[in-house]
Amino acid sequence: MARLRRLMEIHYEQVFSGTLPSTLGASWWVPGIVTQPEWTPPTDVYETASECVVTLEIAGLHEERYEILLYPEHVVVQGERPWRHLGEAARIHRAEIRHGRFHAAVRLPCRPGTIDLDGIRVRYEEGFLSIHLPKALEGRR
User: Fold this and answer.
1) 2-15+36-83+94-139, what's its fold?
2) CA distances, 134 to each of 28, 97, 98 (Å)
């Protein structure tokens, strides 16, 4: 949570509404498999009267493998899921799980400036990263 707060302090105040960072690298590479573009994890976004919630499916990642950036109208989650070392004798027969760099830029349904920055909660559980962005009292409907 401290890491998220530090990133928010750096980015939220400095970035104009609608400006997003450039994506991470253009591709990932695994020996014996064709290069694939950066991927975007499946994402759900919903809003209640009291908060906006962004949930991403990023199974198998530790906190140091991703970062969360908060902008006035967007949340950006980016990072990398490394390829598991299978050993020299391993032959891949099927590879559907995405590895390498990922980037998800999500437009928030909340109005800019209505998020209570001190109340933001981040939870990673069973492969899902949930970012709870509570609305300040003036932003609630």
Assistant:
1) Immunoglobulin-like (2.60.40)
2) 35, 32, 31
Distance of CA 98 to the CA centre of its chain: 15
* Residue in 67, 74, 141 with CA at minimum distance from that of residue 112: 74
Torsion of CA 106, 109, 115, 121, to 10 degrees: -50
Residues in the chain predicted with pLDDT less than 50, given as ranges, are 10, 13-35
What DSSP assignment string belongs to 93-136? S---S--EEEEEEEE-SSPTT-B-GGG-EEEEETTEEEEEEEBP
Measure CA of the first residue to CA of the last residue in the chain; give whole Å: 27
- Answer yes or no: are the C-beta atoms of 66 and 129 closer than 8 Å: yes
Ordered by start, the domain boundaries in the chain are 2-15+36-83+94-139
Maximum C-alpha span of the chain: 60
Q: Are 95 and 104 in contact (CB under 8 A)?
A: no
Identify whether the C-beta of residue 100 lies closer than 8 Å to the C-beta of residue 31. Answer: no
